[in-house]
């Protein structure tokens, strides 16, 4: 067994390999749409769990697809993973799904890798690149099935174009890649949905916070962390102000 000493390299390698495994499962053609998502989740999760346990045996671990325990709460370093972020999109053969691998240290999302296997891309916190300037008309990514009311309200206030998209990771990385300018979400997310995207987005110089402007804090007893704002720093105050105005009405 080879040991990958660098945490960032490990996160990126794990996300990339898990993504390739998921593509192999989907491309096998042996599973129905009904069972494909579950098979993909289990395959990627088993690989990630075993690999992290072997590579970092002293660290804590939280996965969407594994039973949580309180063992991680006493750890300073905790790996937070989502083996398939966007199971529906994965099963439908779309590209807007992701694999999340993150390392939170003392609750802060320090290291992250988000693989977009359908696009052959891995975004990683240790390799930030410059994000191109925003267009005059801002672009906001929203859920393609359940757009948050707050996001639609803010988009209207800012005159932003709404772009429907699948998983949380895909939406966050659209901002990181300069394909969108704002990702605002409220309701229905957990730590594994946002930890890796938050780490990557912050490393790329983006604003990352809760929708009240407070920081994202991970490895909590309650893993529910329902809201998230990722955007260019120059737009953060306008978005937060629009949210406050909406909540006051």
UniProtKB/TrEMBL annotation:
Protein's UniProt name: 3'(2'),5'-bisphosphate nucleotidase CysQ
UniProt keyword Magnesium present: yes
GO biological process, one term: sulfate assimilation
Top-level taxon: Bacteria
Organism for this UniProt entry: Sphingorhabdus wooponensis
PANTHER family from the UniProt entry: 3'(2'),5'-BISPHOSPHATE NUCLEOTIDASE 1
Lineage: Bacteria, Pseudomonadati, Pseudomonadota, Alphaproteobacteria, Sphingomonadales
Transmembrane segments: none
Alphabetical keyword list: Magnesium, Metal-binding
Cited CDD domains: CysQ
